[in-house]
Amino acid sequence: MNTHQPADAPTAAAAPRRWPWLLAVALVALGLGLFWWMNRGHTSTDDAYIQANITMIAPRISGTVVRVPVTDNQRVEAGALLFELDPADHEARLRQVSADLTAAEARVQVARAELDMTRTRAPAALAQAAAAVRSARARAEKAAADERRYEALFAKDQIPRQVLEQARSSHLALQAEAEGVQAGLRGAQTLAQQIAAQEAALASAEAAVAQAQAARDQAALQLRYCRVTAPVAGRVTRKNVLPGSQVQMGTPVLALVGDQPWVVANFKETQLEDLRVGQPVEIEVDAYPGRHFSGRVDSLQAGTGSAFSLLPPENASGNFVKVVQRVPVKLVFDPAPDPALHLAPGMSVIPRVDLREQGGARLAEAPP
Hints:
Elements: H1 9-39, E1 42-44, E2 48-51, E3 54-57, E4 63-67, E5 75-76, E6 81-85, H2 88-155, H3 161-188, H4 191-224, E7 227-229, E8 234-237, E9 246-247, E10 254-258, E11 262-268, E12 280-285, E13 292-300, E14 326-333, E15 349-354
Helix pairs in contact: 2-3, 2-4
């Protein structure tokens, strides 16, 4: 009995064992081909994250915190009260400068009334003084004529000496009166200078009013600064303020994260050739698996990420090793995501840019 197997028996037995390997290779090739087909005309990066406007909130004045109606991570609308400082000192200051303003306004009224009175009586006083001068001169000239006439009569012994002496005394008195009235006329003629001085006094009083008004406005601002409100809508973050805390002017005590996030995608510089402004982007956020957000390419940062690092590379010194750099590209959500979603700055995302749309400007050529 022949127990030997045919020569081709090992080949026939090995053939069924090769089918699983061939099937696996075919499936891998099919998967790679399908992956290439689905991703052709697209580019992506896993070096991307959420970014948003972060507003640091600092008081404009120093003071003691009396109320903090917000909590950590609370969403607030623009204009909502974040915290309040003790207003007692600023209210007292406002009352003081308001009283100073009232006193300054009263001084203006007095100066204006005096100026109006001077302007009103100046012409009449000047005319009255001129008339008085003419009248006094006439009386003095008549007395001088009487004196000369009495001297002639006295020389003829027609009148006694007593009458002559009276005429002389009357002449001297009227002459002195005329000189006094003349001095009054010169005083009346200086009313223009008096008006100018009173106008200057009025201007000074009005300047004092303006200064007091500015002080009152400043005090009112200081009082208003006791209430610190949200400049924009957002979420309260890094809150470091409690009732009773002493805060200093200009020192941030909390932050507001804005409601309009965007994506910063750090593409390799070799990926920028086909990127265009306005290209559609599909965004996957790691925090929301299975959920896709739509967006578009917005702009390109003017410099690589390493150029703005704390210690930028110095390629001119030492040995140089070329490294492909990454350039931040701004991607915006379109439409904007629901503000109720917690898309916080720093969250990781994976953007997938559709490069087939080439109608927009190249990122390097995009207008500002």
